[in-house]
User: Fold PepSY domain-containing protein from Chryseolinea serpens.
Amino acid sequence: MKKFILLFAGVLFLGVAGMYAQEQDSTSMKGERQGVAALSEPSNNYAMEMVQIQTEDIPASLRSKLQGYRYKGWENGTFYRLGNYDGYIVEIKDGDKTKTFHFDANGRPIPD
Assistant:
């Protein structure tokens, strides 16, 4: 009987310890979430950060990408450099449609 009580107490202790081990520490999670949310919020004034540039100001790496068939008519497009120099936006008009393409600072296309 004594062994049964000790065995029961041991199993009960391990069960309670296992339940508390799975509980998350809410204080550390709140701090991490706030930090991530603050970094990932997009800017609402992105249009104000765009600076229109001339065709001559386009870097060579971007020019070489624009030679592809997908960017046909880019010579007559409108070009923007993001104010923080993170990339470029190219707007190409095809009739009444406007195609917009995004590129990083090195001229690599950024998928939509």
Q: What stands out?
A: The domain at 46-110 is CATH 3.10.450 (Nuclear Transport Factor 2; Chain: A,).
